[in-house]
Design a protein that fits this description.
- By secondary structure, the protein is mostly beta strands.
- Helices cover 5% and strands 55% of the residues.
- The protein has 3 helices and 45 strands.
- The strands form 10 sheets. It has a 22-stranded antiparallel barrel.
- A hairpin with a 4-residue loop joins strand 35 (616-629) and strand 36.
């Protein structure tokens, strides 16, 4: 199964290279009148329609926006059965990488173009990709796995977005735009069931306007049982989730020139980690030593007979352990104001408050992680943690235009308080000969009775002023566009690590930074269906301190300078859309995580130090996206991302040695292809979708040259839509499957216990499938 994956990578690359010369030929040979016609909404049913994005803080056409953007609209999300950002881990957008933190679904690691934080799961650590919902920045990676609520479109802005989106967007931004109230009655409901005991339901209700007010309510429920069962009665298995979300919106529009949107949401994401499975025993072929007493150097403890290992995903774990739901509670409220002063100027305000409350229970390793077996000793590390965060943000924008200039100016304020604690008791105990085990007293797992490994709190405050203007000179038939932008930011961060190993400490850090991030873009309309651009931009990720460090070691910000050229084209009477971007980035101060796992008796500790790498990290790549409307009903899409990274060797703070280091979860080659077909059938509409997504193997740790597996995931959906069940009500019936071919791959491999047991890893979700019914009024 895995031997053909490399050939699939070459297939994606070859397809991209073949499309490029075709596009160039089309651009050279297209008649002038056809090019002019392509700029207008085409009458042909086979023409691709314009797509609107908000990447420049104003609504612009995707093809005329000089930024590399990948987009998924509501239809695409539905076709792939994307219920949360977790479902994008299959590589549906090749330049976007999504992975769990450790094995946990309670926090997501999100990366773009090689900017991927390994451990942003701490109060004083930052993400490298900004995540936004309706213009509101989400400061923590916790809670990002929550149920999506009526997303109209998902925009992936690639490359530094330091000018308009600010700090922690050095890799790019993930911008989610939801559907707002319409003021007219409308109801969309969905209900479905699937394997692994899954069921889901959605409700989106638009109410008729009352005077100047419109109302909308969205609700979602998503549940799936464990993909690896737990043999301990009364405990939950691994890979399960239970997500609930609710949002209410009110729109006040007293005049055509003023609009106020008030939204409030609440979500609960209950989940369990993926099983951390021993992939092989004694990979270094050490001598198997005694099970008791002192272990001679160069030897390894024997493996108990009841412990299983292998390269196939376990459907039932070999060791039963206490495991309960991790719970992410999120809530927030936002107020978006828009006032059209005149036809050339709009003033905006975005005010938001959000909270995240996480109670983590991760007992995913059983006997597959150190400590190794020893008679009558404890094992199975239960990682218990809590995180509490609340944030407030305020942004003012002025969006306007003159005869030759389009501009955006803004003021931004962000304040965050976050705290966490962690404990790691062992839940199981071996018998004398390793043929059985008992469960320990659960008292040490109860909050208030735990031995706290660490506890910290952090505060961040950020101010920014920014502006961006695009000038179109009266020359070259208005085909040249010059954009200048800049953002000045003041950051003030501080923190305290006040408990280490259950003892009070007074370790603190404080950082104040201010910086200017410029952006320069030159765009040229080679024709009405070909837009070229060159861009220079900068961005940064704020510094902080590692609460997993024994000394609360702090580290500085990392900064990136990016150079990009791109082309956006609509060809063959807008039947083929081809976008290409090539980029190179120089990053200084790369934040590298070094981990040291130590064993004292039967307890383990993972100490993590973060170091700013010396010199310049080099990142370069190529991205190609294409969409072809073959017929009125058939659309083919393909995307490919090539990313090459090189980080300077960095001194390991534990060993003192200068060693190679790596960027995690960044495949050199990644690609996706899809086909969508639609045709009338039985007074209804048949819709078919299939997509295939490939990724090279990647590193999963900064400090080790150990890779996970390559992946190839196929998803499919078949629907009979628009079946009229009564006047004004349309029914859609769908069959769907994710990971249709039931491919298995290790998405995270950990070599930390290679000399004591062997590598352990986490497998992807197996094939899931189900049926859905949707009714639209």
């Amino acid at each position: 199964m895995k031997t053909s994956l490399k050939s699939r990578a070459y297939l994606f690359a070859t397809a991209a290279l073949l499309v490029a010369p075709v596009a160039a030929f089309a651009a050279e040979t297209a008649p002038a009148d056809a090019a002019v016609a392509a700029a207008e909404p085409a009458d042909s049913p086979t023409a691709l329609s314009d797509v609107t994005v908000t990447a420049t803080r104003r609504e612009t056409k995707l093809q005329e926006t000089p930024i590399a953007i990948s987009l998924m609209d509501q239809k695409a999300l539905e076709s792939r059965h994307v219920q949360s950002l977790m479902d994008l881990a299959d590589g549906a957008i090749p330049g976007l990488r999504v992975a769990t933190f450790e094995a946990r679904q309670s926090a997501l690691t999100i990366g773009i173009r090689g900017i991927v934080p390994l451990d942003a799961n701490q109060p004083a650590r930052e993400q490298g990709v900004g995540v936004y919902v309706d213009g509101v920045y989400l400061g923590r990676q916790h809670g990002l796995g929550a149920a999506l609520l009526d997303i109209e479109r998902l925009e992936v802005l690639k490359g530094p977005q330091g000018t308009l989106f600010g700090r922690n967007t050095e890799g790019g931004a993930l911008n989610m735009v939801t559907r707002g109230p319409t003021g007219e009655f409308g109801l969309r409901t969905t209900a479905g069931v699937g394997n692994y005991g899954a069921y889901n339901a959605e409700m989106h209700l638009d109410l008729p306007s009352v005077g100047d007010f419109s109302f909308k309510i969205d609700g979602a429920l998503q549940r799936q049982d464990a993909v690896t069962k737990n043999p301990l009665p009364g405990s939950i298995g691994w890979g399960a989730y239970d997500r609930r979300g609710l949002r209410a919106q009110v729109r006040w529009r007293p005049t055509d020139k003023f609009q106020a949107d008030l939204a409030a949401d609440i979500g609960k994401d209950k989940n369990t980690p993926f099983y951390s499975q021993l992939l092989g025993y004694n990979p270094n072929n050490l001598v198997v030593g005694p099970a008791t007493g002192t272990l001679p150097a160069g030897q390894i403890r024997p493996l108990p007979s009841i412990v299983k290992f292998g390269s196939d995903r376990m459907s039932v774990a070999d060791i039963g352990v206490p495991q309960q739901w991790s719970i992410d509670n999120t809530n927030g409220v936002s107020l978006n104001l828009k006032y059209e002063v005149n036809e050339n100027l709009e003033l905006r305000s975005i005010t938001a408050y959000r909270e995240v409350d996480v109670d983590q229970w991760d007992n995913s390793g059983g006997a597959h992680r150190i400590p190794a077996y020893s008679p009558n000793t404890n094992f199975s590390r239960y990682s218990l943690a809590g995180l509490w965060q609340h944030q407030f943000s305020q942004e003012f924008q002025a969006v306007g235009s003159t005869d030759r200039i389009d501009y955006v100016a803004g003021l931004y304020y962000f304040h965050e308080n976050a705290s966490d604690d962690a404990a790691t008791p062992s839940t199981n105990r071996w018998n004398a000969d390793g043929t059985g085990y008992t469960i320990n007293d659960p008292t040490p797992t109860i909050r208030g009775s735990r031995s706290i490994d660490r506890a910290s709190r952090a505060e961040a405050e950020s101010y920014a002023v920014y502006g961006q203007a695009t000038y179109t000179p009266a020359m070259l038939n208005d085909a040249l566009h010059l954009t200048l932008g800049g953002r000045y930011t003041w950051d003030d961060k501080s923190g305290e690590l006040y408990i280490v190993s259950n003892a009070p400490t007074n370790l603190t850090f404080a950082q104040k930074n201010d910086r200017f991030d410029p952006m320069v873009t030159v765009a040229y309309d080679a024709s009405s269906n070909m837009h070229l651009y060159a861009k220079y931009s900068t961005g940064y990720r704020a510094g902080g301190a590692s609460s997993r460090s024994l000394t609360y070691r702090q580290f500085g910000p990392e900064e990136v300078k990016a150079y990009e050229i791109g082309a956006k084209t609509d060809l063959f009477d807008r039947r083929l859309r081809l976008n290409v971007a090539a980029f190179a980035m120089d990053r200084t101060g790369s934040q590298i995580d070094f981990s040291l796992v130590t064993v004292t008796g039967s307890s383990t500790r993972n100490t993590l130090e973060t170091i700013n790498a010396p010199g310049v990290t080099k990142i370069k790549g190529l991205e190609v996206e294409s969409t072809l409307r073959v017929t009125e009903g058939l659309t083919l899409s393909a995307a490919y991302a090539y990313t090459d990274t090189k980080v300077p060797a960095t001194r390991n703070p534990f060993s003192g040695l200068v060693q190679p280091v790596f960027i995690v979860f960044t495949p050199k080659n990644a690609g996706s292809v899809s086909a969508d077909y639609e045709a009338p059938l039985w007074n209804a509409t048949f819709r078919g979708h299939i997509d295939a997504n490939y990724s090279d193997a990647t590193q999963t740790f900064d400090q080790t040259d150990v890779k996970n597996d390559k992946s190839f995931i196929v998803n499919a959906r078949l629907s009979l839509a628009d079946v009229q069940v009564k006047e004004g009500a349309l029914l859609t019936m769908s069959l769907w499957s994710r990971n249709l071919l039931n491919e298995e791959y290790v998405y995270r491999r950990d070599p930390a216990n290679r000399n004591t047991l062997g590598d352990y890893g986490n497998f992807n979700t197996p094939r899931t499938y189900g049926v859905e019914f949707s009714v639209r009024y």
